[in-house]
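To the wet lab folks,

You asked to see what we're planning to order before we commit. Fair enough. Below is the target structure as tokens, and below that is the sequence we designed to fit it. If anything looks off to you, flag it before the synthesis order goes out.
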């Protein structure tokens, strides 16, 4: 995951500091030094210290626009590698959707503001519902069941996500997708210390 300098500059031009996700929660960029290290003022610090330093690969914009890359490892449909990246606008997110991909890769762009989903190709599979779990800062190997035939099964699968209260050392993105209707059913984002968002739309 990363943040481009031009996104920060565009935010400042619009008189809005870019809000970012970190392992410690949500914060605002207040300084970028010559070595590419960001100083972030945390919005809800757990400790007395409010400002932390993060390298660019450790933060991502805190927005409603997420691009997920899914790679099928080939030996089982449940064995997938995923990674997520947030973008400051839907336009930038769709630009990310245009990046090159191989036959075993699916890109899914989520617009949680308008509940829109765009993919680089059809999501194949017999099951209607797809539970996506992805880290922002590293590839994440899916080991749990993520395909469901009925909405009730999908809701039961989502209960495991609802029980989560944080993560260990990374930022986790989860979404439940109705593949047939191309519809977002839920979203959750967790950092090491807290739940950032947890929403359902059914």
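Sequence we intend to order:
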């Amino acid at each position: 995951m990363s943040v481009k300098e031009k996104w920060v500059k565009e935010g400042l031009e619009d008189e809005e500091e870019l809000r970012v996700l970190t392992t410690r929660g949500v914060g605002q960029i207040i300084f970028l030094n010559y070595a590419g290290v960001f100083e972030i003022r945390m919005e809800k610090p757990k400790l007395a210290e409010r400002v932390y330093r993060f390298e660019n690969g450790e933060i991502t914009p805190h927005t409603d626009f997420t691009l997920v890359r899914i790679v099928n490892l080939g030996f089982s449909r449940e064995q997938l590698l995923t990674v997520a990246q947030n973008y400051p606008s839907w336009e930038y997110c769709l630009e990310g959707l245009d990046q090159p991909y191989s036959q075993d890769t699916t890109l899914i762009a989520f617009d949680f503001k308008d509940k829109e989903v765009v993919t680089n190709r059809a999501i194949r599979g017999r099951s209607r519902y797809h539970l996506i779990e992805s880290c922002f800062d590293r590839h994440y190997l899916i080991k749990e069941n993520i395909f469901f035939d009925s909405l009730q099964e999908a809701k039961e699968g989502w209960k495991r996500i609802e029980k989560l209260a944080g993560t260990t050392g990374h930022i986790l993105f989860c979404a439940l997708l109705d593949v047939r209707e191309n519809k977002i059913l839920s979203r959750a984002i967790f950092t090491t210390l807290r739940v950032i968002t947890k929403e359902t739309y059914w």
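Structural context that might help your review: The two ends are 29 Å apart (CA to CA). The chain has a mean pLDDT of 87.

Thanks,
Computational group
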